[in-house]
Amino acid sequence: MLEARNVCAALPAGLDLLMSMGRLEESRGGPVLVAPFPVLTLTLHPQERVLFSPVRNANPFFHLFEAFWMLAGRDDAAPLNAFIKGFGSMFGEEDGTIHGAYGMRWRQSFGFDQLNFVVEKLKAQPATRQCVIQMWDCGERHADLTGNWQDRPCNDVIFLRINDKRLDLTVCCRSNDIIWGAYGANAVHFSILQEYLAARLGVGIGFMYQLSNNFHAYTKEFERLRADPKKILDDRYSEGHIKPMGMFDKPGRIDDDIATFMECYEAREFPPGAFANHWFESVLGRAMIAHHRFKNKNMQQALWYADQIAASDWRVACKEWLERRANGQGAGL
């Protein structure tokens, strides 16, 4: 088990574990270093979810948008192509959908909304141990075991527990690339899901556990990060001047705001007063406008909008990522 304050500390700890005991194996994506056993990562402050490391060069705009694309229950690849060129061709099916999209499975695929159901069940029975959110499907609709798909769910099941009036979340993953997945996009996706559910339940945010059955890193990326180990650990949360900003002050209106956000994003307009939860306008909307200006090759406006992001962690990460792009550094994931 690895215990870390946040994702910024978890990434170098995971790399150290693979350095000390990882085994070299082949995979369909190329050579990987793999831990010889499952690894459980305990994150004490999951809302400290933003990576700042310049050598990791995570794309904060992509991580942020994809988390809300999931909460909206979407499976269309087209919006993700705006952040990662060719995302749909790499992971999508011929009809333009992502077969293993988590959000679609959370909210629609099994014939009911799993998120609504676990909220109501935990409200009625806070001590229940029966709240499980399913992502892997071996039934006829998805045939994850037998079908021929571009993408299958890597994270397969989520367990929820209210512990001392805080919501703990455990996500189990069959195969976890720790650089791009566990301590990259997944840390954002599942901690935002955790904060969303905690807000709707009226409880605090507890611990997040990530159980990785196959804990690995692709050797090319592993060697790139390990070449400059001093820059991997960049935990500005611990320094105290950067703090996460609470996302949901109107829990009963979150789903309305998610639907409005997707409409605003597609229209490329975020009118004042469109959201009940202030975070959507002051953080999410401003980040998306900044990214849109960047895509339109207007770096000055992109940086201006990024500087207006109210949450200090997302503001710093978005500005620094844009600055690295302006200096010709790679896009990152």
Explain this structure to me?
- This protein is α/β, with parallel strands linked by helices.
- It folds into two domains: 2-244, Thymidylate Synthase, Chain A; 245-328.
- 44% of the residues lie in helices and 15% in strands.
- It is built from 13 helices and ten strands.
- It has helices spanning 7-21, 60-71, 78-81, 87-91, 102-107, 114-124, 178-201, 219-226, 236-239, 254-267, 278-295, 299-307, 312-326; strands spanning 2-4, 23-25, 32-34, 39-43, 132-134, 155-163, 166-173, 176-177, 204-212, 215-218.
- It has a six-stranded mixed sheet with strand order 1-4-9-7-6-5. It has a four-stranded mixed sheet with strand order 2-3-10-8.
- A hairpin with a 6-residue loop joins strand 2 (23-25) and strand 3.
- Helix 1 (7-21) packs antiparallel against helix 7 and helix 12 (299-307) runs antiparallel to helix 13 (312-326).
- The protein is globular, with a radius of gyration of 19 Å.
- It starts with a strand and ends in a 7-residue tail after the last helix.
- The model has no long low-confidence stretch (mean pLDDT 94).
Short description:
With 333 residues, the protein is an alpha/beta fold. It has helices at 7-21, 60-71, 78-81, 87-91, 102-107, 114-124, 178-201, 219-226, 236-239, 254-267, 278-295, 299-307, 312-326; strands spanning 2-4, 23-25, 32-34, 39-43, 132-134, 155-163, 166-173, 176-177, 204-212, 215-218.
